[in-house]
Specification:
By secondary structure, the chain is mainly beta. The chain is built from two helices and eleven strands, in the order E-H-E-E-E-E-H-E-E-E-E-E-E. The chain has a single domain, classed as Purple Acid Phosphatase, chain A, domain 2, CATH 3.60.21.10. Strand 4 and strand 5 (69-74) form a beta hairpin. Residues 1-139 form the Calcineurin-like phosphoesterase domain. Belongs to the metallophosphoesterase superfamily. YfcE family.
Length: 172
């Protein structure tokens, strides 16, 4: 399974659509701050949450089961991700997620905490604290490992982020 994870596109729907088309993912996760009408989001298999700059009536958080993994998706502002990831991790644990996707900080991050993989794809338009805009592609390696790769909006690999992570499948 190939999953595209993006965040903080801030109204750049043409750029978002180009990325979605190029990556040909089985599913797309948008972690909020899409800042456009929901009807203008890509017409693909999509999980989307509302960020602090969004006005559309989409959920504040969502869970999505993809393959062996349960994803917990939020924007992150209500979990105060700019100061700590602890609240996000606890909420992901509570809902039985193995992968927590979030945005808000515009900073690409991928780290494992116990059996939870925390992923911030960065921002495809306005990076903060990182040299280039980014998004993430997650792919199953096998039933217990996932590969995370970061890319620039033009499709170039960002080698200083990502990796392969071992996780126990979600209890569903």
């Amino acid at each position: 399974m190939r999953i595209l994870i993006v965040s903080d596109s801030h109204g750049e729907e043409a750029l978002l659509n180009r990325i979605v088309k190029r990556e040909e993912a089985d599913h797309v996760i948008h972690c909020g701050d899409f800042c456009t009408d929901q009807s203008r989001l890509p017409a693909v298999s999509l999980t989307v949450v509302r960020g602090n700059c969004d006005w559309e009536p989409v959920p504040e958080e969502q869970q999505w089961d993809g393959g062996a993994w349960r994803f917990f998706v939020v924007h992150g502002h209500r979990h105060h991700v700019n100061s700590s990831l602890l609240s996000l991790r606890y909420r992901a644990e509570k809902v039985g997620a193995t992968i927590a996707c979030f945005g808000h900080s515009h900073y690409p991050l991928c780290e494992q905490s116990g059996n939870i993989l925390l992923i911030n794809p960065g921002s495809i338009t306005q990076p903060r604290g990182f040299a280039v805009p980014t998004y993430t592609v997650l792919e199953d390696v096998d039933e217990s490992r996932v590969s995370i790769r970061y890319f620039t909006p033009s499709g170039e690999v960002v080698t200083e982020r990502g990796g392969t992570f071992s996780l126990k499948p979600a209890q569903k």
